[in-house]
Amino acid sequence: MHDIRLVRTDAPAFDAALARRGLASPSAAILAADTRLREIQTALQAALARRNSLSKDIGQARARKDNETADALTAEVTALKSQVPALEDAERTLKAEVEALLAALPNTPADDVPDGPDETANREVSRHGQQPVFGFQPLEHDILAAKLGYNPEAAAKIAGARFAVLTGPLARLHRALGQFMLDSQVSAGWQETAVPLLVRADAAFGTGQLPKFEDDLFKTTDGRYLIPTAEVSLTNLVRDDILEDDTLPRRLTALTPCFRSEAGSAGRDTRGLIRQHQFEKVELVSICTPEQAEAEHAHMVASAEAILTALGLPFRKLLLCTGDMGFAAKRTFDLEVWLPGQNAYREISSISWCGDFQGRRMNTRLKTRGEKGTTGFAHTLNGSGLAVGRTLVAVLENCQQADGSVAIPPVLHPYMAGITRLEPQP
Prior knowledge:
40% of the residues lie in helices and 18% in strands. The chain has helices spanning 4-9, 11-19, 27-63, 67-103, 141-145, 152-159, 168-187, 201-207, 231-235, 293-311, 357-362, 388-398, and strands at 123-128, 191-192, 198-199, 225-226, 242-244, 250-259, 278-288, 315-319, 331-339, 344-353, 365-367, 376-377, 379-387, 406-407, 421-422.
């Protein structure tokens, strides 16, 4: 959400920032509606002030026994009473129009974000780990997993496409990955949190999923939404709060199922576990002051990278361009893990700084302890630490053996009840 005062005071700068995201002069419609709104507000204030003044004048005229003047003034008050509701209705309508125009716009990019239309303009920042060298042709994960306990046909009978059934040691490895990730983040200082999987519309609005991306969400018959990520629940924990600056940063983590309709991904990653309607993810969320945001972004990226390093998975870090960032992001780093079966890097985590964009939508304000008044809106950050299914894909492809088995990374052994290798099932 954007501050209307910034649009009023420097529309050219506002337009220039959003032009980097492919939008042409969004301030024009906003300022036109805002001008009409302020005209209505001025007329409403004048009508209310005149009505109050007339009420005093009527009393004075009655006291003087000047009934003719009092009756004339009373008639004017009656006329004003009929005008005020219409002005109030117009004010509500125009205020909603201005807010809707502002809410439909994505966040403005940070200065260091590269310009570009899509992922081709993303900037590689660094690479980590060594890509494995095989003495055989490595397989893609779905082919490997088909003999290890992955049953998409069973899932399709129950729920349709883009769902998975995992059984036996493969299901345990999936569980182990989620528990290892969560334990690691909690040990690193992130506060474990159990959150609702269903949220109200105002929560989805607060983090930017609504209204623009409603088609990407699953909606229940009572008007709630299944979370596409625990970011929605975790970030909204501070909705409408006033936060003391010395209590921040607040670092939260949760392991939850996530649900996405994948409305815009027809034909993409239809095989395997890369793009599912239901998946699990460890989410990281930080609520902080503007001054803490830069360090928090670096810390969150490092927290996600630590999981990949511990698992021995090669990956690279990208700074996303303006055309590839999410709606609420001001700056995003993607971590892409190497998948030898696909001979490509694939996204496994997106870590975004949102500035005060979500804080403003949620009305989450900041306060300096011991001082009166608020100092602005909280900054928010979110990222995956990591997506469990995609990490399972990466382990399968990077740790596969010539006989079709998969060596389990040593850090997961304590979670596997003595199982150190997934063996193909006959």
